[in-house]
Amino acid sequence: MQSLMKIRRIAEQSFISPIKDGGVTLLQNQALLHLKDHHGCTVGELSAKLGLSSSSAAQLIERLINLDAIKKTPDAEDRRIAHLSLTKIGLSQTEVAHSMLAEKVGNVFSQMPEKDLKEVVRIFTNFLKKIEK
Fold first, then answer.
1. What is the DSSP annotation of 78-94?
2. Whole-angstrom Cα distance, residue 113 to residue 75?
3. Cα 34 to chain center, whole Å?
4. Chain CA centroid to CA 3, Å
5. Mind listing the pLDDT tens digit for each residue in 92-105?
6. CATH code, residues 2-131
7. Domain ranges for the chain
8. Which three-class secondary structure string do you get for the chain?
9. What percent of the chain lies above the pLDDT cut of 70?
10. d(C-alpha 22, C-alpha 3), whole Å
11. Closest-CA residue to 67 (of 53, 54, 48, 86)
12. CB 3.0-4.6 Å disulfide test: which of 18, 36, 49, 116 passes with 112?
């Protein structure tokens, strides 16, 4: 268990720095990634997905709007509801973060023997199956 915690800590440190260098925090990046896959989701849906209170989500959304990474559009039928979507800048940010992550992971995996890679894939596949139940 200690090894898993150490891997998690090192991975976070390795992957967070490039995201911050891209101009957004890890939480902001998570929001952008969610919006990339869920175009037009509501403020409430994003808040629930990220596990944030309404006020924290509102602050996060305002920061992303100020960065011109997302836009907020009122619902046509219910003005109390707002839909969120990525701007070109927000989409670009998700692509940059994805590229940096893929490069870092690729660099690590390229140093491993094929036998070890297959074992890692097998273990993570089983792990995901267990936690998705």
1. -TT-EEEEE-HHHHHHH
2. 52
3. 6
4. 24
5. 988 888 887 788 88
6. 1.10.10.10
7. 2-131
8. CHHHHHHHHHHHHHHHHHHHHCCCCHHHHHHHHHHHHCCCCEHHHHHHHHCCCHHHHHHHHHHHHHCCCEEEEECCCCCCCEEEEECHHHHHHHHHHHHHHHHHHHHHHHCCCHHHHHHHHHHHHHHHHHHCC
9. 92
10. 29
11. 86
12. 116
pLDDT of residue 8: 73
Local structure of 1: helix, strand or coil: coil
Whole-angstrom Cα distance, residue 89 to residue 66?
Answer: 11
Distance CA 84, CA 103 (A): 29
- Beta bridge partners, 84, equal 72
Give me the amino acid identity at 13. Q
Say if pTM beats, i.e. exceeds, 0.90.
no
